[in-house]
Specification:
Elements (H helix, E strand, L loop, with lengths): L7 E5 L3 H11 L4 E5 L2 H11 L3 E5 L7 H11 L4 E6 L4 H9 L4 E4 L4 H84 L6 H27 L6 E4 L1 H17 L3 E7 L4 E4 L1 H18 L6 E8 L3 E8 L6 H4 L19 H11 L3 E7 L3 E9 L10
Parallel strand pairs: 1-2, 1-3, 3-4, 4-5, 7-9
Antiparallel strand pairs: 6-8, 9-10, 10-12, 11-12
This protein binds adenosine-5'-triphosphate (ATP) and magnesium ion (MG).
Length: 388
Amino acid sequence: MIAAAAHKVLVIDDELGPRESIRFLLKREYEVLCAESVDQGVAMMREANPDLIIMDIRMPRKSGIEGLREIREYDKHVSVVMLTGYGALETAQEALRLGATDYLSKPFDTNEMLRAVKRYVDRTRAERRRVGMLEDLREVNTRLVNDLANKDQQASMAQSTAEIAHDMRNPLMIVSGYVELLTNQLEDVREEVGDRLGSTDDYLEVIGQNVRRCCELAHMWQKYGKAKLNEFGPTAVADIIEDIVMGAAPLAASEDVDINYDLQPGDAVINGNKAQLLRAIHNVIANAIQAVTPPDGHVQVTCRKHEVTVDIVVADNGCGIMPEVLDHIFEPYYTTKEAGKGTGLGMAITHRIIEEHHGRVQIDTQPDEGTTVTIQLPLEGVAVSSAA
Ligand SMILES: Nc1ncnc2c1ncn2[C@@H]1O[C@H](COP(=O)(O)OP(=O)(O)OP(=O)(O)O)[C@@H](O)[C@H]1O
Ligand SMILES: [Mg+2]
């Protein structure tokens, strides 16, 4: 009787005598497969994945040397012992050069054969274990390197964001100061110059508004940069509500879009990162603002705590999303906006951040009627699968 998971030995020899004597010798301890030609043997090897192949060198049609080449093309690790006739030392040595593990002369000594079979079966198995472990290690290594690269990238992005925001703030403050000076000077000369001023003060008002918006954005990005973007912790949703409004208000104002808030997160707490969540929500609100057309354009932002999730819903009555756009909406750099208006990164970033929070982003849309984007985040302490 052979053990259930017996090691396999494949014997390839055109002569019945040696084939059968090896089978007889090994059958108590091994599962022995026999082939009478190279082609048959190679086919059996592919199917059975043996631990050792014993192969005659001299065979009609295809020789053992050719067989060895085919075996090595398929499996570099299986041990192959060649059987050589008397005086075929040179051929045996060529076989070793081509990747045979060893050779035995015919007629073989049974003890020597048994010892060789044990040794080389063990060797194949050890080699396969080593290769398997190496592959596992490579996989773990690649994963670690990728993780590290992501973390480094995020950290350096946060750092450069903070630096850019910081550098922008100074010239912006200067522009803002001069806008104020100009406005004051205009006031002084208004009486003298009268109508000749035309819409100059309106223009200044728009410049002033937009510079203030840039300052607010720069301030927000400086805060993002300082926040540790990888750190997750208990975050009260009520604490981010104010920042959501602060981020959206200047954008809505500059686009002349009516935006309403109905934010009632109650005591909802999630396990998350505040700065990342704000980015995710802001991208969705920005899209909604950009999708509507004044004066009827309208955006509604709602937040509610439910049993296992807190939902942030951004609804607009804008252009809606065509199905072919919806299919790609989470892909980085996918945009329908004209060059310079959109990078196509907004929804990709939102999707990634919400996934990292074990939440989900759901989009309901009707072309020409509007879009509702729901960000659903699991409450802290809720098994994450129940929210997804
Ligand atoms: N509320 C929405 N209404 C209509 N279309 C939308 C809405 N939100 C997203 N889209 C569509 O999805 C596309 C991808 O959105 P995404 O936010 O990823 O990039 P973007 O807005 O084009 O550029 P960016 O966000 O970098 O400024 C948009 O170009 C737009 O066509
Ligand atoms: Mg966008």
